[in-house]
Amino acid sequence: MTFDQFNIDPRCLAVLERQGIKVPTPVQEQAIPVALKGRDVLAVAQTGTGKTLGFALPSLTLLGADRPKRNSMLVVTPTRELAHQVHDVLNPLGRALGLRTLCIYGGVDMRKQTRDLKQGANIIVATPGRLLDHIRSRTIRFDDLSILVLDEGDRMLDMGFLPDIKRIIEVLPKERQTMMFSATFPNNIAKLATTMQKNPQRIEVGRIAMPTKLVRQGVYNVDPRKKLALLSKILSEPNVETALVFIRTKHRTDKVAKALHKAGFRAEAIHGNRSQSQRQRALDGFKSGKFNILVATDVAARGIDVQGITHVVNFDIPATSEDYVHRIGRTARANMEGDAITFVTPEERGDLGSIERAIGKKLTLETWDGTVPERPVVEERFEREPNRNNSRRKPNRSNSESSSQGRRPRRNGSAPVEGASNGSSRPKRNGSTRSNSSRRNSSRPKKRLSHAAASV
């Protein structure tokens, strides 16, 4: 089947042809005919299967057949990155039809968005929080809205956006077409669908919570203190062209990225605590090849649509099987193959079992032999340091998280973690200062890196 077989606006087809998109994916093949009839749609499909065009093409075809109206279509996404991704798909299609698309999200000047809204737009792509800000400020109205799309609905509910979604729906016209697209279909999605949709056509493509067959899945049993050494070994392999590394917390994301950067890798971090400009620079640098390793949290990685990611590494095992599927779905996209590698500590065997039951597959648990190439940071070097310098003791793991933020020295008197402020003169408990510690270590960069790695 080709897109020509659908009743899609020819102007949209011309855009697809220029982009080299000719054959619809399974979810597009099933969703487009239903959406073109104006029916509500509840589509569940794996990450990376082309859900955006599944709602974009029929929606714009319907909007293009009528007189353009202000704010006639609204797409709500959980993250800024996904909002940008959706906007980038909708914008060229909309321009071909004479429709203006506007992207609204937090972390940037709201006044500029207000000015853009006053100029008028036909299609709004927004994150829930900033959209509610404009609704409360009465800088946006949806009197003429005819199409509502919730993209990545499962993630929005996981992130606690349900109250915001309900407030948004309250101000929308009751008579509208509502489409929900999601990678999984948990019970909370089913409940939400019943409250906001009318007799939706449910579409399921592939097994829910099942990764694509094109991704090779590997699992390593690793001591928590040796994770960075194993990561360094994997990223040094010649077949690793681009890699997305998932970390559970924001501050550890920064620490791992800094340690990799110091070891010579082209790595950058992206997480929710970074400003929008920082996140955009990281994402643009990853897309352009300036960085080939992106260290990210689950939330920040949602919406990252970069073709050709060869490897996904779960530095921290995901909390749920759904998160596992979402993470490894960042590779093996567009019919390409990819590798997904998960680190599992001995106490996380139960979490691995839950993932295996959900995906219906037993994953081989490899044991790492401890060998690493020369370039990466190796934690063992730091652990041997006390034997050469009796004035410095092995770091206490219980203090690693507080030290990672650079707010106070370690209680055992060890040197500050890489990335901590060197300008503080507050004395440590052994009487030394941060600045003195920094001067002692300035001629030994490898030990500084090892020190940072050991506390990750």
If you had to describe this structure to a student in words, what would you say it looks like?
- The chain has three domains: 203 residues, P-loop containing nucleotide triphosphate hydrolases (Rossmann fold, 3-Layer(aba) Sandwich); 153 residues, 3-Layer(aba) Sandwich (Rossmann fold); 76 residues, no CATH class.
- The chain is 41% helix and 14% strand.
- The strands form two sheets. The protein has a seven-stranded parallel β-sheet, sandwiched between helices.
- The N and C termini lie far apart (50 Å).
- The C terminus is likely disordered.
Provide the structure class.
alpha/beta
Query: Low-confidence parts lasting 5 or more residues at pLDDT below 50?
Result: 375-455
Strand portion, in percent? Answer: 5-15%
Q: How far apart are the first and last residues' alpha carbons, in Å?
A: 50 Å
Shape: globular
Instruction: Tell how many strands the DSSP assignment holds.
Output: 14
Largest beta-sheet characterization: 7 strands, parallel
CATH architecture label of the largest domain: 3-Layer(aba) Sandwich
Q: How much helicity do the residues have?
A: 40-55%
Please list the strands of the largest sheet in the order they lie side by side: 3-4-2-5-6-1-7
Radius of gyration: 24 Å
pLDDT averaged over residues: 80
Which CATH C-level class of the largest domain is it?
Answer: Alpha Beta
* Number of separate structural domains: 3
Count of helix runs: 19
CATH topology of the largest domain: Rossmann fold
Annotated CATH homologous superfamily of the largest domain: P-loop containing nucleotide triphosphate hydrolases
